Structures are given as structure tokens and as C-alpha cells.
Amino acid sequence: MAILSAFSQDHPVLGLADIRRRTGLSSSTTHRLAGELTEWGALARTSDMRYRIGPTLRRLSTVTLPDSAPLSVTDQREQSTSGSDHNAAIGRLRDKNFPA
Length: 100
Description:
The chain is mostly helical. The chain has helices at 2-5, 16-23, 27-40, 55-61, 73-97; strands spanning 13-14, 43-45, 51-53. A three-stranded antiparallel β-sheet has the order 1-3-2. α2 packs across α3 (27-40). The protein starts with a helix and ends with a helix. The model is unreliable at 96-100 (pLDDT under 50).
């Protein structure tokens, strides 16, 4: 999610170095994850070999649920926090199962 969050209206196209700087990930991790996200369609390569949001995310962004109301800022903040908690829990599990 950190890589996808690096993109914005002001920065719709980013190179690997830009993504690395905006996420704080290592170069190798940025390269690996960008490749995986590109294979899945979450990112796409531009003609100058940079990255942009890909077709899968564009398609998913148009999906709406019946009777769904837009999220309030509070709802978004709660989801963001729970996502952080989830990511922290995954990291703890990974560290427990795959010690360095």
C-alpha cells in the first residue's frame, strides 16, 4: 500500500527513485514490489519506463456497492488506522515466522 499511496494528483507518474524516496523502502524492495504490482495491474509502465496507476486499480476505482454512502473523514481515518494495525500485525507475524 505504501507504493500505491506514493501516487497523487500532483504526482501521477513516478520513477523507482521517486517511489523509494516517497515510501522510505529500500531500492531492492521498491523494485520487487513495483514489479509485482505491475504484473497484477495495480501499476503500469509508461513509455519512459516510469510507473503510473494501472488498469486494475482504475477498474476497481469505478466499482460501487449498492446503497453505499461516501466515507466520511472519520470513517476514512478509522479505516486507515485499522489498516496500519493490520500491517503491523502482519509484520509481527512475518518476523515471528521468518526471523532474520
